[in-house]
UniProtKB/TrEMBL annotation, chains A, B, C, D:
The keyword Protein biosynthesis does not apply. InterPro entries: Citrate_synth-like_lrg_a-sub, Citrate_synth-like_sm_a-sub, Citrate_synthase, Citrate_synthase_sf. One of its GO terms (molecular function) is lyase activity. This is citrate synthase (unknown stereospecificity). It comes from the Bacteria. GO terms for cellular component: cytosol. It comes from Aeromicrobium endophyticum.
Length: 267, 267, 267, 267
């Protein structure tokens, strides 16, 4: 490829001397007419969502925005304590905890359900019995291979996560209920008989199912959890400015440090 | 302070076995009833915005979300190319460019205007003549001290940034127009006479003025620019998956590298 | 656990009013007597390395420090262009590319070899024939399962990576040659017959083998590649200050952007 | 500039099919012959340091590598707890705290001293009396403008930081003592009379002075503090694997959270 043939394709932001466009729409036409959540959906899915889809999408973002003093919030506050001149660093520091353990369930659950739905041949016309049968197969397989089903169980909300029924309610009200939420509900119905105990469908998981039903790329669902969390982390920084706690937490940890000798340390 | 007296204050996310709350509101009541932009405002300002305030706020977020192949977007795509397993790393990598030069104008402009407004004694009842007088003083001072006024001028949109009139229009329609936008407009009116040339009021600057008028903490305005940009960067990653360009750009750079000898290099 | 029983164990840095210690060594005794690479090894392995181990360890760090305009270096330079006030952000931005594709080979290769060595029962007294037999089994298995062997092959150095023979030379000279390097060499000997073509043992892979032979934790080898790369990225920032190229690269990319319409875009 | 004229200058890593070079040196010649600290110096300063310079440089890196449970170490451990799959994210998260407050003193002190030395006309032949006179002027000016002198004072080591005399000792032994260390020492001598109390010269500050004496770019000194800290953070992650504390610290913080009502909150 000669240099003169180089081209970098994009549908996103462009500008000329007099215009700024996104997807070839004038920015001034988007401003005031397209909501921020709506634009985030559009940028990722490359199609403008319906108002009903926006409602479900924003409900997921609200559900995932903040959970108080999580490890990610603590990382952001510690970084802000150390480097208050760099808000971008404090935000990035917290987002970097959006990995496999605490914030990855949304993507893991959405991807898991999408793979199962795609392989099943089931679709919008399938019945609850169809979904229950598929769910029974999946739960049995998970038990036999000693794998967890993403989105099932919660360390705290053992009797039910308040976000889960609300997402189902909104999906039904807005007509956005689809196969991923259907399969996730079926897993909730059938797993107690097979596993011998009842686990809650958690909020991160149900958001993964909902985002998959909205047609968002399932290998990018973590990105939406991170977008939601960015709003939470801005709030954490705003609160740290008003009611600082990071210094106290740091001093608590430092003062309760105890020495262990590596030489006698059973590794 | 004894350990038993330690407490870490927060108004943000908390949970019990059966509830999740933000600002003592049940999460299920927020979901579906509070938009994502609205929640982001609430989390940072610690008060629920009016619908009119949400409209102006989201218009700013839309204005700032994406500008195509900026250095931050390129950083995100390069990081995604290197470490596709870690979307959080690719997002964080791009956000880290949200510093003084390319993304800091929003905060710089809002802070600059807020300091001037606070020191002036002017307020909602002041007239355009009052604002023009203050603006004349500021522009003259900037010229004499050879300082830039944040938000004034744009490398590309020399005849006007399309976002600027739109923000003024929305602020007037929603009744959210306030002293920061008033002073910024006055700077736009008076500077050509004093400086001998006409510079545009840029979009990042006008968003800083609007966010300050909304009562958001001016030392945190960069946080909102970063929140907006997070949506853009998720879109950049989604597009890189479909239409990759980072490998081509990397190879272009690598192939056009030329060696310079530090020994003979005039430093 | 009551608060009064809380304790956070550590062997690393501690300080009193008059002392600073690492592993209970006075910092002033370490300074000038322990090299930086030596300390990095000690901090991670929790035991002081021998001078011979330090030589091999630092040779690996030197091998991995910089490779010019890689995607990680470009990310660092783009972030520095955008936010020159935050060197930590520019460094972090580059390190975040240290993931599965470009910088992960060191850890992947070390872990792969360690698992094979551990399962094999082979050890320091095994012969080249023993290692060849094990290697034949591994390469055959990789071919049958269509998996890559980490560290085998290089997009550029198809006839051999100059770092590989040098690591073997240093390992032999310093008496630090061990089972992981032995197995990696055997893979180099036996794979052409089985695979029908000759691939080079690459430098990132041989460093993974060497670091595993040094007894460093194999699930942390990426950390050493990142430490090495930090030195390279500091160099990249120093050079960007003297001979900036990020603005030119950004403008090149921006100017060669071409619009694609998502509506007609075959996804 | 036409595309065919584009070139990106660099003296750092390059490779051909058969070679890898840094500064036009073959990588295999550097490996085993150049230490890691030496290479880091070379990459940043663009000239190979003498062995004496390497000794002082590595002593600074050792002094700055780890300080136990600092906010940056806590951020790294929290991020590792959340996203154990991404070591690069955990490292980056900690480095992002390398800003103005906790890790910036090295650069602030080096820059401050360099500006004063450059403006003074003093040099290698100046006497202690010359430096004392300059120091008296600086301390007086700082007192009058109510500014802090970077590197002066320590929250903990009020009677002296053990790293400071050691750096002076090494600088004298290696013949690398220069004007920045001379001025810093003078500040230590003269400030008690002017300020009415005795503050220690802290370790981060003395390292800034030493790094400036080594001729490293003073606007990049934070980069060396970050390089040193990277080794410390790899050690923190290694220890978190063996002796986890992040979950306990997170639970402690979460359990001691108390709600504050924003409505009645005096802001």
């Amino acid at each position: 490829m000669s240099d003169n043939e180089i081209s970098y394709p994009s549908s996103l932001g462009r500008s000329t001397r007099t215009t700024i466009t996104l997807f070839d729409e004038q920015i001034q036409d988007l401003m005031g007419n397209v909501g921020f959540g709506e634009l985030a959906f559009w940028l990722a899915a490359r199609r403008r969502p319906t108002p009903e889809q926006v409602t479900l999408f924003e409900a997921c973002l609200v559900a995932l925005a903040d959970h108080g003093f999580t490890p990610t919030a603590i990382a952001t506050r510690m970084t802000y304590l150390s480097a208050p001149d760099s808000i971008q660093g404090a935000l990035a520091s917290g987002l970097l905890g959006g990995g496999s353990r605490f914030l990855g369930v949304t993507e893991d659950c959405g991807s898991y359900l999408a793979a199962a739905v795609d392989a099943s041949g089931l679709g919008p016309d399938s019945t609850d019995d169809d979904w229950d049968e598929l769910a029974r197969r999946l739960v049995t397989e998970a038990r036999e291979t000693k794998r967890f089903i993403p989105g099932l169980g919660h360390p705290n909300h053992k009797d039910g996560d308040p976000r889960t029924p609300r997402i189902y309610e909104i999906a039904e009200q807005t007509g956005t209920y689809g196969p991923h939420l259907a399969l996730f509900a079926a897993i909730g119905r059938v797993h107690p008989d097979i596993m011998g105990r009842t686990l809650p469908l958690n909020g991160a998981g149900v958001c993964g199912a909902a985002l998959a039903d909205l047609g968002l790329p399932v290998d990018l669902l973590r990105g939406f959890a991170l977008l939601a969390r960015t709003a939470g982390l801005v709030g954490q920084i705003a609160e740290e400015k008003l009611h600082p706690m990071a210094m106290d937490a740091y001093l608590h940890i430092d003062r309760h440090s105890t020495y262990i000798d590596p030489a006698t340390d059973p590794q």
